[in-house]
Design brief:
Helix content: 55-70%
Distance between the termini: 43 Å
Number of helices: 6
Largest sheet: 2 strands, antiparallel
Order of helices and strands: HEEHHHHH
Shape: flat
Strand order of the largest sheet: 1-2
Radius of gyration: 20 Å
Oligomer: single chain
Strand content: under 5%
Length: about 180
């Protein structure tokens, strides 16, 4: 991909993120980012898609800012294809672990009763999320390290602290589906 292609892709991603955040999401959701009813704060319908749009915009902005040189190119190779399939497998495995860690640990019926109660509500998210982030960091570094594990566990805990603790009525994935 040439430098010009990076610039075009970055501009398109940034434009789509802005359109989504300021036009599509407000027109498509019934509530805002956060809703306060009787001093109780809960997540609104627009929070998750707005965060996703922000990340898309950040990615587009990064492509514009660090557009690369004219000599950069992306050529599919066996190694690239292997890495894509390996990462896809890791993501699928992490999601399966997120989904089944709680029910396998406690039993399906007991977990269903405790799925909104810490630490059981964090179990699958913590294990699956830590595996996912650790595997992605190890894949980028091309080796497994204690630092990769620390980053994986740390980010999973940070997301739990950021999303689960402040909101009483939020269930971390996949607890809402169990």
């Amino acid at each position: 991909m040439t430098s010009r292609a990076h610039l075009i892709l970055g501009l398109v991603a940034l434009a789509l993120a802005v359109l989504a955040a300021f036009l599509w999401i407000p027109l498509d959701t019934d509530s805002g980012l956060l809703e306060t009813v009787r001093r109780r704060v809960s997540i609104g319908d627009a929070l998750a898609p707005t965060i996703a749009a922000a990340f898309i915009g950040l990615g587009g902005f990064s492509l514009i800012l660090f557009e690369g040189s004219e000599g950069d190119s992306v050529v599919p190779s066996r190694e690239n294809m292997f890495r894509i399939f390996a990462l896809t497998g890791i993501v699928v495995l992490a999601i399966l672990i997120m989904r089944w860690a709680g029910p396998v640990t406690l039993g399906a019926e007991e977990y269903r009763l405790l799925r909104a109660t810490p630490p059981w509500s964090w179990l699958g998210f913590l294990i699956g999320g830590a595996l996912l982030v650790t595997a992605l960091v190890a894949g980028i570094e091309r080796r497994l390290s204690f630092r990769a594990v620390f980053v994986g566990v740390g980010w999973s805990i940070a997301l739990i602290l950021l999303f689960d603790l402040p909101f009483e009525d939020l269930l971390l994935p996949p607890n809402g589906d169990v």
